[in-house]
Design brief:
alpha+beta, Rossmann fold, Elongation Factor Tu (Ef-tu), domain 3, Alpha-Beta Plaits, 6-stranded mixed beta sheet, about 25% helix
Length: about 625
């Protein structure tokens, strides 16, 4: 029997007699790759919260995918005991957060469970786009912000510039900043003391009724749903009867505990604590992130403010390669939804791919991560279709519909106009690359609204672009032309009317719905030619010629032909008149003509994978 993925420590009641004034709840926020996970590692080592023999880099990143890519995908809570200089013992509840723009919803959920935040700034890179976005999230939650200039040991570090940006861009006094190097352990003591001194303790509740915010959840095959909670008031212990406020579901608590950093059972979770609760709930759909847990017999009058439902921005189809895995894929997606509230799915069918699901994501990286997690964590072999966004279609009859699947675009004769979603993008880059970035924005049908000088070496550009152009390859090209120095953050910015058309790919005059997409009319030829050329390379040759065509409104905009396999029928024709060879060739020609009428084209499964990985427009 396989072991449970959760490591468990059996320290009895690690938070006994802990005063609420000795609890500090905080997050680490920063741009991607500014050292959040490394700083969390140093905290655990410095406070001896983890044995050296069990220590490994990126300790809180427990997914193989996170370690391979060097990014944080999920927020990870951990309770740290710290003996402060004033002689008192404190429990510091840290929730590590991701830095990529696609996972900003994870950051907002983490901040909702905290009273303070460490703002990490790379001394070599300075303030980046996601730094500004995360600071705004923390300000919205009214958190105490402690700025930390990290990586001061690097030869390229420019501390003075970072302090200047801190005041000019973020309006945070430079004297509040702490200089540190998480890698070398410099300034760790000062940061821990600042957490104790500057971040307020959880406020005393106005009542004794149980209120606990579910800020994250996971699914354990052995124990069912595991809720990560922040207790706002009251206390929760094993055996309590609790109720979810959103659906009224009641359950008995089987276990409560803390993250130290492994899941450590405790006697109870008191007011102000961050820990986990394991109710007797086996179905992932019964537990929602952002819900409030309260007592069944003495419920609270109203739930805690939850989280806004995150609306997906990118849609794609996910299909099992083996159609017999459909139900298994459905169950795997339900479990994945439990700890990824931004991932949504619904059933759909495709002529080419069979039964599958239409899935919503926050961005291309989010889509990539979900696909990889389905493959690794649940062992699913899947195919994904070309990503699409939600379009507003206004019909001549006055009806308005939202389309996330190109197959459902109404007949062009009934359409009055189509509106595509826009995003407002903030790009921070070294000023030397400003010309190349502006060209990229125009190439992607965007408009540069303004350019602001951040300091003598950096500029910040505000631009408005179609979301479809952002999710495909904009970020990759931005990093390429700026040699990795530019950073970007974006948010929805309404819709605009655009000349959009449905482009379908036909193979041997048969439409292949998996390759259908909605494109800008001016880019239809380029996109169609690219797909046709890719398919020509992948589709194996048959005994007859295969036409690969890109159609827009019944008109062919691009075409490629896969040549036929030919047998040399004249190989055994020795000597004689030329008419003998011509007769054999004519006979072969007639046979191929009949074959083209009755023959079917076999498209290999890996063709869908290879073509749909093409990101260029």
């Amino acid at each position: 029997m396989p072991k449970s993925p959760f490591r468990r420590c059996h320290t009895p009641n690690p938070c006994r007699s802990l005063l609420i004034t000795h609890i500090r709840n905080f997050s680490i926020i920063a741009h991607i790759d500014h050292g959040k996970s490394t700083l969390a590692d140093r905290f655990l080592q410095h406070t001896k919260s983890i044995d050296e023999r069990r220590f490994q880099d990126q300790l809180l990143d427990n997914m193989d995918l996170e370690r391979e890519r060097g990014i944080t995908i999920k927020s990870h809570p951990v309770a740290i005991r710290y003996a402060a200089r004033n002689g008192e013992d404190y429990v510091l509840n840290l929730i590590d957060t991701p830095g990529h723009v696609d996972f900003s919803y994870e950051v907002s959920r983490s901040l909702a469970a905290c009273e303070g935040a460490l703002l990490l700034i790379d001394a070599a890179q300075g303030v980046q786009a996601q730094t500004i976005a995360n600071v705004n999230l923390a300000i919205r939650e009214k958190l105490t912000i402690i700025p930390v200039i990290n990586k001061i040991d690097l030869p390229a570090a420019d501390v003075d510039l970072c302090l200047e940006q801190l005041e000019e861009v973020l309006a945070i006094p430079a004297e509040e900043a702490i200089l540190a190097s998480a890698k070398d352990g410099i300034g760790i003591d000062d940061i821990l003391e600042a957490i104790v001194d500057r971040i307020p303790a959880p406020s005393e509740p106005a009542h004794s009724q149980v209120q606990a915010l579910v800020f994250d959840s996971v699914y354990d095959a052995f124990r069912g749903v595991v809720n990560f909670v922040r207790v706002r008031s009251g206390s929760i212990k094993r055996g309590d009867q609790i109720k979810y406020c959103s659906n009224g579901l009641s359950s008995e608590i089987k276990e409560v505990g803390l993250f130290r950093p492994a899941m450590t059972p405790a006697d109870e979770l008191a007011t102000g604590s961050v820990g986990y609760v394991i109710p007797n709930v086996k179905t992932p759909e019964d537990s929602r992130i952002g819900d409030t847990i309260t007592s069944k017999h003495n419920p609270c009058t109203e739930p805690l403010p939850g989280f806004k439902d995150v609306r997906p921005m990118v849609y794609s189809g996910i299909y099992p390669i083996d159609t017999g895995d459909y139900e298994t894929l459905k169950q795997s997606m339900s479990k994945l939804c439990l700890n990824d509230s931004a991932f949504v799915f619904q059933a759909e069918t495709s002529v080419a791919l069979g039964f599958g699901f239409r899935c919503g994501f926050l961005g291309l990286l989010h889509m990539e991560i979900v696909q990889e997690r389905l493959r690794r964590e649940y062992g699913m072999d899947i195919i994904t279709t070309y990503p699409s966004v939600i379009y507003r279609v206004f019909q001549k009859s006055g009806e308005q519909v939202e389309i996330d699947n190109p197959l459902y675009l109404p007949d062009p004769s009934t359409i009055d106009r189509i509106e595509e979603p826009l995003v407002h993008a903030s790009i921070i880059s070294p000023s030397v690359y400003i010309g190349s970035i502006m060209n990229l924005i125009m190439e992607k049908r965007g408009i540069c609204l303004q350019t602001v000088t951040v300091d003598q070496n950096h500029v910040m550009m505000d631009a408005e672009l179609p979301l479809h152009e952002i999710v495909i390859d904009f970020y990759d090209k931005l990093k390429s032309i700026s040699r990795g120095y530019a950073s970007m953050d974006y948010e929805p910015a309404g819709h605009q009317v655009a000349p959009l058309v449905k482009m379908e790919i036909r193979v041997n005059d048969e439409p292949v719905d998996a390759f259908t997409s909605i494109v800008h009319r001016d880019y239809a030829h380029t996109r169609g030619k690219l797909l046709a050329e890719k398919l020509k390379e992948i589709i194996p040759r048959h005994l007859f010629k295969i036409a690969i065509q890109a159609f827009v409104g019944g008109k062919v905009v691009a075409r490629e032909t896969v040549g036929a396999m030919r047998k040399d029928v004249t190989a055994k024709c020795y000597g004689g008149d030329i008419t003998r060879k011509r007769k054999l060739l004519e006979k072969q020609k007639e046979g191929k003509k009949r074959m083209k009428q009755v023959g079917k084209v076999s498209i290999p499964q890996d063709a869908f994978v290879k073509v749909l990985q093409t990101k260029s427009n």
